[in-house]
Structure to design on (308 residues):
């Protein structure tokens, strides 16, 4: 009887070995680690695609890319040196641009988190981020869904806020389905948010005391009892889901069913939540509004600048 390992067995063993090795290595990473995995893959004698079917090789490759880019943000490598090492990895163990970007965005998100710990980004930190993003041509205007609302968005927003404070506005060539004033510019757009408006319902209530007498079929008369009084019930009713445009003059909610413009000069207060903001507007009998589905960090910082 012949004993042998099938290709499926070899792939399973190789997958496990690569994952175990990936978990064991620590920064700083060296060319020897890359060469070791490359030699191991060649020695297995199975196709690269089969071995990487569950992403084991991609996981190892991403870990190296993350390590080299972390070394850039911690000033252990220049960006050109970090990119050179990343390119060597990718040319040895090919991965898609999308998978590589996952690693680059991961590092950028970590860097943004550290930079924002003190509440703002310094000019030097902003230059470092801009150099990183521009050199890697990362699509900051089309972030993956899982990164929306992340620290990466905040660093882009922080840059816009800093420019706004200096009187620098973004170009007015953005196509948006709302009418802008002559000196109005869109600073940011939050997609998939829901607008709620306060709805007040009134009903007449009162405790009944006394006796009822039947006058005729279906007609009763109750004597005595306390006086009735009106009771109000307040609730927030959804008006639709759409996009919140933040301009230099207004908050504009736009959806297929509803469009609402809220001028900043009419806002007398805002209550931020983890996933939205409640807006208090000036005027008689004005109802409260809540916009849910976004991190209000950018809006609150913008309003603080306008209020100064």
């Amino acid at each position: 009887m012949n004993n042998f390992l099938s290709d499926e067995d070899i792939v399973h063993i190789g997958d496990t070995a690569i994952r175990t090795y990936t978990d064991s290595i620590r920064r700083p990473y060296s060319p020897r680690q890359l060469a070791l995995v490359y030699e191991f893959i060649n020695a297995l004698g199975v196709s690269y695609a089969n071995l990487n079917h569950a992403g084991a090789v991609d996981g190892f490759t991403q870990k190296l890319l993350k390590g080299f880019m972390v070394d850039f943000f911690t000033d252990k490598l220049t960006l050109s040196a970090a990119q050179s090492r990343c390119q060597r990895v990718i040319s040895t163990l090919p991965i898609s641009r999308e998978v590589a970007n996952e690693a680059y965005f991961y590092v950028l998100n970590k860097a943004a988190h550290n930079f924002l710990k003190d509440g703002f980004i310094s000019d030097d930190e902003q230059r470092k981020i801009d150099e990183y993003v521009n050199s890697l041509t990362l699509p900051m205007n089309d972030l993956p869904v899982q990164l929306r609302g992340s620290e990466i968005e905040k660093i882009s927003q922080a840059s816009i806020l800093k420019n706004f404070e200096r009187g620098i506005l973004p170009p007015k060539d953005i196509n948006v389905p709302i009418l802008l004033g002559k000196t109005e510019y869109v600073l940011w757009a939050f997609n998939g948010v829901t607008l709620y408006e306060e709805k007040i319902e009134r009903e007449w209530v009162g405790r009944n005391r006394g006796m009822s007498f039947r006058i005729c079929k279906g007609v009763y008369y109750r004597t005595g009892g306390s006086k009735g009084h009106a009771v109000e019930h307040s609730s927030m009713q959804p008006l639709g889901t759409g996009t919140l445009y933040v301009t230099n003059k207004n908050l504009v909610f736009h959806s297929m069913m509803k469009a609402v413009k809220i001028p900043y000069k009419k806002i007398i207060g805002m209550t931020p939540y983890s996933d939205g903001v409640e807006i208090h507007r000036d005027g008689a009998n004005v109802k409260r509004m809540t916009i849910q589905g976004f991190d209000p960090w950018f809006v609150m910082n913008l309003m603080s600048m306008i209020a100064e």
Q: What stands out?
A: Residues 36 and 206 are 83 Å apart (CA to CA). Residues 97-115 form the longest helix (19 residues).
